């Protein structure tokens, strides 16, 4: 039994759902999940579909047929992927350990179905954690005027390990355009505020100063503009005047790790689709 | 332009989605929304679909065709309804006014697309509110040993006004089996606890006594077993030891009115489907 | 039995709590509630205290004594108020009715212990609602180049009715500096976003465009800078890509009315204290 | 500089706050925090106070004086503790690792100011995790008819290591009365439901079957009655019909670890006070 996941967006018109479902039915596939959405303002159709094939599936052949018939007819941007193949995830960290501990704990207990070939950091502080979980750790310092050098080393490692996507688990460095182009909508960041409030540095300090009654965390795909990429997931926590900046930072940690983990799971399940700098999150 | 809503459940098998969508495509319909779900444990398929027809739609003819072809083939329990026809809602109240004010305010401001031909109460306390909103109010006292008499009067009124569904907006009486049979999955109650915790009378008192840190409200369809019907919507609110029973009651009011209104909106949009004493809530 | 509420802030030093509590003990008062907070960063002490007196209380005398002894010693900014006297609240509205319906429903059912001598609006659309609840309604149009004229009329009415504080229940006009000075920290606004995100006009449109996964509402005291006053209360609601701008507006209504009502209740209970453009909210 | 924490409950009467604060003022203490609460129904007074002493504090002497004067006068149940001394926490686990990973990650990063002298388990599955964090792990199997033997070993270890309190981090065994008596209100459990709903075994299965729209987790002190002890903290997460039992279990894990950690932090900060099988949680 093989299972594939299909993600589509295309101009909205009539007959798409019937066309797509008939296609898979005709290929002896059993559609076990379909979720669809139409952005009426921009007249765009979105769909996610899971389909099972009982015989040995020729994935390339299926892709070719789908591309030549349905996809072309409806001018689709589309992607068919085998649902079984685990993706390879790289984790970038700096000095904060809470997201790293959380991700590695989930990984070890089988909650995250992913491979983690490497952890990259601009500091060596978290190396012992990586080691205690048995994950290779690469310390690549980022010096002020030699950022591109560091990034070249990172890219080389990512390429060598055939990394599919990158998670910035409180990696406190700005990602260059070159890296973003190499991993379009495949770099997931966790920002420690309820975006678009408090973008940029020291959001807990700003939240404290403004006197908000709720803080948040936001996981998003990284784009060229800082903290402005498509939002995958957000969550919040109530605070009061009793909370010092240090309290906000501590409370925020829990938000950050939960929100980041949820975003990664959505990405792994191929339930995220980016369009117009926003995400469609399928159920 | 006519729009219909289709709700289905049937034994899960392959080809249903393709079959249904092809049917509507063949009838020159444009499917504008589809949401589907499979209960894998019980092998049941669920679907909600909205379809637009540009020509004058013969609804009866469409139903007949669908019934004779797709529905029969897949042994479906199904319902096709015109999405335009507003439903007729009766409100039952006792002495608490917060849900009534909330519903009538939403109704008057056009937020609830529904007709409200009547309000029924076992007390006359809220009659002035009904009058100030211009809704007919019927005071039908419920005496201990003459409940069936009162209910006969209620049923007569409901029949006369062709009521589609009933909302118990803190109506503090138990509904008889006869009434429930007359409106199966069409009586919506709001219970002032996070069910199944604190079913029955005085849930805020029980919550206070137990020392919970969160209270809730639950809207559900009424079934023969008290407070045990299919849950449509729930929400919660944090409390602390500072809150007295009276505080819980006050905080709970806001929960009750919001949760009840959400449940009514889901029902009106035909986004609820009951199966196995649970609801499928389509997005 | 008389009850008073005391609000204090002053430079932090040792002995304040003992000093204050001993004072009230010495006046035969029974302290039934005390909540205190120290802003360590700015070295400011805050306190709220409720005290009961069994004999006939001479409020003026108590104030005088407190002022001359404790308040002077610790350089306090302070306020003693009789907890029984209901405050007079004016409501300002434009064309949106949901907050108005909600406030008047709470008022009529005795949930808001307040007097509402008048409703002021720049439109006449909501006059029938005011009338159905029996509250005087004043239609004071605000014309572009004659805003000060309209505001003079408003101020005259507010003065005549001895209004204590103003609630802007989705009043879509900017409040002038003169009005703010006349009611310092006594004008409560509801803004339909999670401030500081999406300050200014059309926040739901901006939230939709940004693709946030959570929307919010914020109630704050009005200050000269638009949507930048001390925040009293905030709350949020989850959304998804399925929600159109219209959906956000509808979902937001529930947030707005709940958050505004909570803020008003806190204000009425004298549980809010403004300092440094932030609020201390006592429990 | 020394800091103490005082927890009190006693019959409510007038003058307690003034009495207590004057006492500490008289001892040259600086009260830096006070939170008080009166249960009016049962006429009980509760207080938590933090006080700093600039000179070398004689803790025993302070306790003696307080006991002989204030505590006796007001018939207080009270406890004064040095705020600096870290407590010793034992962790009990079975086979689920998510709470253990979470607690140890927090411990290692300095978030939990506690000592963890040992982890006890009825299985050896999680031994490698304990080892990777450098914490002694004791495998004490619990056989059906020899439970008291296992518990005797546990008690011996706990005594030897001078354990202050126990955390049941998804320890799937019922705790005996003897153990509970040895650690009254000092055994913290995490139950994977929103108590009192779904007490006992397999709460996620029950939640799925009932069709609730929200699941929860509850941390409470262990008492003789199963899952009925004083609740310290609860939180919830929204679910839908899409979630299978496995999904609930996965979503629940995040709730469990967050709620348990919050409860432990409250306990460590001595912000919990048990009375009448409920908790007062100070801010």
TrEMBL record, chains A, B, C, D:
UniProt EC number: 3.5.1.10
GO molecular function per UniProt: formyltetrahydrofolate deformylase activity
UniProt cross-references to Pfam families, sorted A to Z: ACT, Formyl_trans_N
The keyword Hydrolase is assigned to this record: yes
Active site: 227
InterPro entries: ACT-like_dom_sf (IPR045865), ACT_dom (IPR002912), Formyl-FH4-Hydrolase_C (IPR041729), Formyl_transf_N (IPR002376), Formyl_transf_N_sf (IPR036477), PurU (IPR004810), PurU_ACT (IPR044074)
CDD domains with a match to the protein in the record: ACT_F4HF-DF (cd04875), FMT_core_Formyl-FH4-Hydrolase_C (cd08648)
Gene Ontology BP terms: 'de novo' IMP biosynthetic process; one-carbon metabolic process
Pathway as given in its UniProt record: Purine metabolism; IMP biosynthesis via de novo pathway; formate from 10-formyl-5,6,7,8-tetrahydrofolate: step 1/1
SUPFAM superfamilies for this protein: ACT-like, Formyltransferase
Domain of life: Bacteria
Reactions catalysed according to its record: (6R)-10-formyltetrahydrofolate + H2O = (6S)-5,6,7,8-tetrahydrofolate + formate + H(+)
Keywords assigned by UniProt, alphabetized: Hydrolase, One-carbon metabolism, Purine biosynthesis
Boundaries of every ACT domain copy: 5-85
Membrane-spanning segments: none
NCBIfam families linked: PRK06027.1 (NF004684), PurU (TIGR00655)
Similarity annotation: Belongs to the PurU family.
Function in brief: Catalyzes the hydrolysis of 10-formyltetrahydrofolate (formyl-FH4) to formate and tetrahydrofolate (FH4).
Name this protein carries in UniProt: Formyltetrahydrofolate deformylase
Organism for this UniProt entry: Christiangramia fulva
């Amino acid at each position: 039994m093989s299972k594939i996941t299909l993600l589509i967006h295309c101009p909205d018109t009539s007959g798409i759902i019937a066309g797509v479902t008939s296609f898979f039915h005709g290929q002896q596939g059993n559609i076990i999940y379909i979720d669809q959405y139409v952005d009426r303002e921009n007249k765009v159709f979105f769909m996610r579909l899971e389909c099972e094939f009982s015989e040995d599936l020729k994935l390339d052949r299926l892709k070719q047929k789908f591309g030549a018939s349905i996809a072309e007819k409806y001018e689709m941007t589309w992607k068919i992927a085998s649902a079984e193949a685990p993706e390879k995830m790289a984790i970038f960290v700096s000095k904060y350990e809470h997201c790293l501990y959380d991700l590695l704990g989930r990984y070890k207990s089988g909650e995250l179905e992913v491979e983690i070939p490497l952890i990259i950091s601009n500091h060596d502080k978290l190396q012992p954690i990586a080691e205690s979980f048995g994950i290779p750790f690469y310390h690549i310092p980022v010096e002020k005027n030699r950022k591109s050098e560091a990034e070249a080393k990172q890219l080389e490692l990512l390429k060598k390990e055939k990394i599919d996507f990158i998670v910035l688990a409180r990696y406190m460095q700005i990602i260059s355009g070159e890296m973003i182009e190499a991993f379009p909508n495949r770099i997931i960041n966790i920002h420690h505020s309820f975006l678009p409030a408090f973008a940029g540095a020291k959001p807990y300090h700003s939240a404290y100063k403004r006197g908000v009654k709720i803080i948040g965390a936001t996981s998003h795909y990284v784009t060229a503009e800082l903290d402005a990429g498509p939002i995958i997931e957000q969550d919040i926590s109530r605070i009061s005047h009793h909370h010092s900046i240090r309290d906000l930072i501590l409370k925020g940690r829990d938000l950050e790790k939960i929100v980041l983990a949820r975003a990664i799971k959505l990405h792994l399940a191929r339930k995220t689709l980016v369009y117009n700098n926003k995400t469609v999150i399928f159920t």
